[in-house]
Design a protein that fits this description.
The protein is of the alpha/beta class and 250 residues long. The protein has 2 domains: 2-135, Response regulator (Rossmann fold, 3-Layer(aba) Sandwich); 138-247, Arc Repressor Mutant, subunit A, CATH 1.10.10. It is built from 8 helices and 14 strands. The protein has helices spanning 19-31, 42-52, 65-75, 96-105, 117-136, 166-177, 185-193, 203-214, and strands spanning 2-3, 11-15, 35-39, 56-60, 87-91, 109-112, 140-143, 146-149, 154-157, 160-162, 183-184, 224-226, 230-232, 245-247. It has a 6-stranded mixed sheet with strand order 1-3-2-4-5-6, sandwiched between helices. Strands 10-9-8-7-14 form a 5-stranded antiparallel sheet, with helices on one face. It has a 3-stranded antiparallel sheet with strand order 11-13-12. Strand 5, helix 4 and strand 6 (109-112) form a beta-alpha-beta unit. Helix 6 packs across helix 8 (203-214). The longest helix has 20 residues, at 117-136.
Length: 250
């Protein structure tokens, strides 16, 4: 099913196997001025990503097919797919584990069913706004020997590429915007995972630990834990040769 409005500001893809939910989302987003492509088939959805270039996708987890969709988009094996496509996964399993699996698969956000449409719409708008802000910024952050290329979602250390997951990249990019500032755990969980409070989750700590191990280099330490508070990217002042800020691409 395809629903299109003439004055839509963004194109979104809805992948949902339940007919009533798919129709409801298509109708509501169309009424709010979006161009909507809706399908129940994840394989067809991948084709729509290539042919229609949506600005974002809302994908039902649906027993795991939504996570497979996300990992396919993020994986880069299909070069016609944009690995930067903003993704919101819709799940039905309460609790932290399903949300963590969605984020590990590459989701930018996770919304539990039954959801409030106004909240879902607000989350989509916030995600699209964040992407648009990133696109207007200079494309590179450099801190010491660490280089983060925003548009390409590429990380390198001492000119060697470092492979990071979707959420590891988001965590690193956030910390790098103010490399010596301590970001609280609640602040990071809210900004990157959409959690309202940290509770007992170890999600942030697990991602930070993996990221720290990947950024091991002689004489420099990245992703510093400030016990009882949160994380910062580096200890002490930024090296004079580094630019701990958004750097202009030459």
């Amino acid at each position: 099913m395809q629903t299109v409005t003439d004055n839509a500001s963004h194109t979104i893809l809805v992948v949902e196997d339940d007919d009533a939910t798919r129709t409801f989302l298509a109708d509501q987003f169309t009424a709010d001025g979006y161009t909507v492509y809706a399908t129940a088939d994840p394989k067809r959805a991948l084709g729509l990503c290539i042919s229609q270039l949506p600005d974002a996708a809302l994908v039902d987890v649906n027993g795991g097919s939504g996570r497979i969709f996300a990992t396919t988009v993020r994986g880069g094996a299909e070069r016609r797919l944009d690995p930067r496509l903003p993704l919101i996964l819709l799940g039905t399993v309460p609790g932290e584990l399903d949300a963590v699996r969605a984020f590990d698969a590459g989701a930018d956000d996770y919304v539990l069913k039954p959801f409030s449409y106004p909240e879902l719409r607000a989350r989509l708008k916030a995600l699209l706004k964040r992407v648009e802000m990133d696109s207007r910024r200079s494309p590179v952050i450099e801190v010491g020997r660490l280089r983060i290329e925003i548009a390409q979602r590429r990380v390198s250390l001492r000119d060697q590429q470092v492979h990071v997951s979707q959420k590891e990249f988001e965590l690193l990019r956030t910390l790098a915007t103010e490399p010596t500032r301590v970001f609280t755990k609640d602040e990071l969980l809210r900004a990157i995972w959409g959690f309202r409070s940290s509770g007992s989750t170890r999600t942030l700590d697990s991602h930070a630990c993996r990221l720290r191990r990947k950024l091991v280099t002689e004489g420099e330490r990245y992703v510093v834990c400030v016990w009882g508070v949160g994380y910062r990217l580096i200890d002490g002042p930024v090296a004079e040769s580094a630019r701990g800020q958004l750097a202009r691409a030459s």
